[in-house]
Amino acid sequence: MSLSRKCVPFTPFDGEVSRATVAIVSAGGVHLREQEPFNIADELGDLSFRVIPADADTSQLMVTHHHYDHRDADEDINVVFPLDILRELKDEGFVRAVASKHVGYMGYTMQLKAMYEGTAPQIANEIDKGSRADAVILTGG
Amino acid sequence: MRGIPTVLITVSPEVSAQMRPPRALYPKGFKIGNSLGRPGMRELQKQVLRDALSLLAEDTRPGAVVTREYPDYGEQYDPPSVKSKG
Question: Are residues A85 and B45, on separate chains, in Cβ contact within 8 Å?
Answer without folding.
Answer: yes
